[in-house]
Specification:
This protein is mainly α. It has five helices and no strands. The chain has a domain of 56 residues.
Length: 83
Amino acid sequence: MSTCSGAVPLDLFGSAVLLAAGARPVDTPAETLGREQVLAFLRDHCTNPELTIDDVARACLLSRRSLFRLFDGPGDSLGTTLR
């Protein structure tokens, strides 16, 4: 059975404290890349009045939930971004 190093539990504890305090976690590179991919798709298709959230999610290979999660920060919701 493997054991955790001392740094991992401290990192997890620190993350839990920040989340409890209401701090938003720092974006991971994958989240940033995913958001940029969605934004590029939206820029390329912004003139399509029939574009739906499902179209965006499908084109970016994301679930609807994952798509909304990429834009769940304050002030940058998916709805705000679409407008």
